[in-house]
Design brief:
The protein is mainly alpha-helical. It has one domain. The chain has 9 helices and no strands. α1 runs antiparallel to α3, α3 packs across α4 and α5 packs antiparallel against α6. It is globular and about 55 Å long.
Length: 214
């Protein structure tokens, strides 16, 4: 019974995230092209947001676990440490957007729908999935440093791309309006939040693992 509920919940979460992503790509591509970008330029711009990359990671992971759990990718994405890392990434997406970025623009219509799906619904659903359907084990503390590679690579990519194109995905790393010193300060606090949230999930996982054994 629990297995069926798990499968159903994973399927529901995957469908919600895939729907949000497909809709986001459709409406954003149309808007960017209307603003003068090429189709390829629009796609690259959309892919340059951490929100999009992380939600794609969520959708791909859940799809692999759901459709081919015994495959190479299914086994990889079924690992507790991998699912915990993805949980941290999507929680960061939700927190940064809802605390820092939400008030900077007022999306309407379908843009508001995708905004809520990818920044609020997706993080909440994935955290629930992690809490109730991901096996808990003692994750090694050094895993945090491996988890940090993805956001650090993203930061470097965003700054390099922004330097050459003038396109920065988020205002707190926009070198056109703030100094690189301020960008490093902002990035430090984001990294600190990432480390704290990672530690919280590791501690929760360890506590739940211990309770299960007792």
């Amino acid at each position: 019974m629990k297995s069926n509920i798990r499968i159903a919940y994973i399927a529901l979460t995957a469908l919600v995230v895939w729907f949000g992503l497909c809709l986001q790509f459709y409406i954003s591509t149309e808007k960017y092209m209307a603003d003068g970008r090429s189709f390829i330029g629009a796609i690259i711009q959309i892919f340059s947001f951490f929100t999009i990359e992380t939600n794609i990671l969520v959708a791909v992971a859940l799809t692999a676990v759901l459709i081919k759990p015994a495959s190479k990718w299914g086994n990889f994405f079924s690992r507790t440490t991998v699912l915990t890392a993805i949980t941290v990434y999507i929680v960061i997406v939700g927190l940064i957007y809802n605390i820092i970025l939400r008030g900077l623009w007022k999306p309407e219509g379908l843009f508001k729908l995708t905004d809520d799906l990818l920044h609020s619904v997706s993080p909440i659903m994935f955290v629930v999935l992690w809490l109730f359907f991901v096996p808990k084990e003692k994750i090694r503390w050094k895993e945090i440093f491996l988890w940090a590679i993805f956001p650090l690579v993203y930061l470097v990519y965003s700054l390099i791309r922004g330097y050459f194109t003038g396109d920065y995905p988020y205002n707190f790393i926009d070198a056109r309006v703030i100094s690189y010193t301020q960008i490093m300060i902002n990035s430090f606090f984001v990294l600190l939040a990432f480390l704290v949230i990672s530690a919280v999930f590791i501690i929760i996982g360890r506590l739940l693992s211990n309770n299960k054994k007792t």
